Fold Spermatogenesis-associated protein 20-like TRX domain-containing protein.
Amino acid sequence: MMTAHLRAVDGEKQGLGQVLKDGYSEPVQVSEEKKEKVILSNRAGESKSPYVRAHSSNPVAWQIWGDEAIALARKENRLLFVSIGYSACHWCHVMERESFENEEIAAILNDSFIPVKIDREERPDIDRIYMNFVQATTGSGGWPLNVFVTPDLEPVFGGTYWPGPTSNTTPFEDQVDFLGILDKLSTVWKEQEERCRRDSAQILQQLKNFAAEGTFGGRLGEGADGLDIELLEEANQHFASTFDKKNGGFGSAPKFPTPSKLSFLLRLGQYPPVVVDVIGAEDCHKAQDMAITSLRKMARGGIHDHIGNGFARYSVTADWSLPHFEKMLYDNAQLLHVYLDGFLLSRDAELLGVVYDIATYLTTTLAHPTGGFYSSEDADSLYKRGDSEKREGAFYVWTKREFENVLGPQIEPILSAFFNVSEHGNVEPENDAHDEFIDQNVLAIVSAPSTLASTFGMKEEEVVRIIKEGKAALLAHRETERVRPGLDDKIVVSWNGIAIGALARTGAVIKGFDPVKSEEYLGSAIKAASFIQDNLYDESTHTLYRIWREGRGDTKGFADDYAFLIEGLIDLYEATFDDKWLHWADDLQKSQISQFYDSDGSGAFFSTHFSAPHVILRLKDGMDTSEPSTNGTSASNLYRLSSVLNDDSYAIKAKQTVAGFESETLQYPWLFASFMPSIVAGHLGLKGVVVSQGEEKDDNGNKKIKEFEKAPRGGLGTFARLDNGSTWLRERNELLKGFGVDGKTRILICENGVCREEGTASEAGLIKEQSLEGLGDVAAALPEVEEGIAVQDK
């Protein structure tokens, strides 16, 4: 309904979109005042963003978003053309080649508009505002996101990719080419400026009304009573109805990994018994099966880089066979969390192999030498050195002849059968609009080593050895002969927060059977957290800055930067029990509340700071998208901190944050999966465990810690360890001031502000023991698992 209203503002028969298609009418006389012509110059090179800087050689005179560009638009009374994208975006690069490198288009943009290039990863606030507009007025969205806005920043017209003069892309029905859009909009603004301003102001007001309605859950302090545990059952039923039983995942093509959905499904059976009873034990088991099946299918599909490491952003096909090849930090960090939980629940060595694979990708390819993780790798690259034109997936695809030349006649048939390599390629023509994949193969595992052993008449161990050697040869060839895709080497706080938490948990889980890798992964998480604290945090004001690239950027952190970093720091504390990480998380939580919390409205966190400039619409991030909801994550953080710090004010804020999205969550609970742990916590409370380790040798405390480290995520809970160095935590939590100071090992169980001391006998354990030592063949599998080739017939 919102879309229909915005497509034809105020009941008019046609909106601006229709005007662009059909032409304009009712011209008004415009007085032509002679004034000095402003000559714009390209300022993209002044940005810290690699994506924006990459446009510095365009003939388009790109300006930097901010005071100067907006003041210039107002002085010249021009529309701003705001183009938003990111480094790894394939269609962003296509539009640059077709349009932004075109002299004719550049001349129009430079003479009639103020062109502004924005990196969505640097300014997600601007991206969200105008994405809301484009989705509401066109019914869809994506990147590149292109919007024409008035000098007052009100949106006039927008869309995503528009074909340029040199385009060979088949246009969609009724799609207007970019040159035509520029011609008509420049004329419409010149001759019908008043109408443009009136329509855009009305659209903006409707967007504000819609945003307010969407997060209305009663006034602050009210609501949330209707958010019952039954919502988890409803969300689970929705996921079950859209589950692809054949290929895993949800829905059809294009298909995304959706870590938030998978995490929800894996958690269901780990909640307290009352939740499992509501959902049904059988349905909880089926939910876990859906998630594990999806994880295995993705791990074997083309979306997974089998020669290197990591996962691409999404698959063009339903069977995960053909990805869009960009790799994102936020995807891989979330998937590390999910594959770790999948392994802990299934004890499947294949999933453990993927855990190592992703952790290796984060700590090598995406790792900054002094700490922190880079943002992404591009989809497009040169196929070989000396080429002049980039192709999508060029770094990752193979011909049959290349396999033969690199692997030789003995190994090649086995690797080709394993990875589905054929002479004419394995990409269907309908998925190859630009003929980039003719005779090319995207590697995907289609056969288990045991099956290949039978086919080729050899022992399974020999097949595994051949696959391992073949992968090493392919990797060596790829690294030496091909040109690696572009790396977006900026460090984004929010995504680093997710990676810190995932690596910290991974290090804790594998410590018992792989102490070397455990130390490496945990060390990388600590290094990243330290880097952010040293370079992107102003301790005097407790303020985060969002990005670092060759120095700190000017953009202050958004609500998601605080949310995901706080979550990562809590995970890091529970992996190291170093108070300083919990202390910092507490400071950041106070800052997030003071800067972003809606204390005057319906609760929850705005995405932008209360005093952020040039923000025409303050939004609250509620639904899970490619990243978990900022508010869902914040609610979990608040509950966890309230438990470990015994701070009721945090629990109250958590409940109010959940209540802020009550109306939407009741209608579409499956879109708010990251809120579900907090909904359960709001009804059942949290259980916190505190172990104070004394000087005498007592294995019960260590056993409790090990049990916690091996537990998959389920309901929200906390775990703390006290020792002689836990001064800050004892001062912050009054319940712990005198606990364990007698030098004896003690275990405290806290629920809803009430604590009881537990006996130290082993049978009194709170957390169900999760034995990793009973995996049997895992120790033998580890060398192969680290190479990512373990496959089981499941």
About this structure: Residues 1-14, 24-31, 760-794 have pLDDT under 50 and may be disordered. The first strand starts at residue 79 and ends at 85. Residues 396-481 form one domain. Residues 193-214 form the longest helix (22 residues).
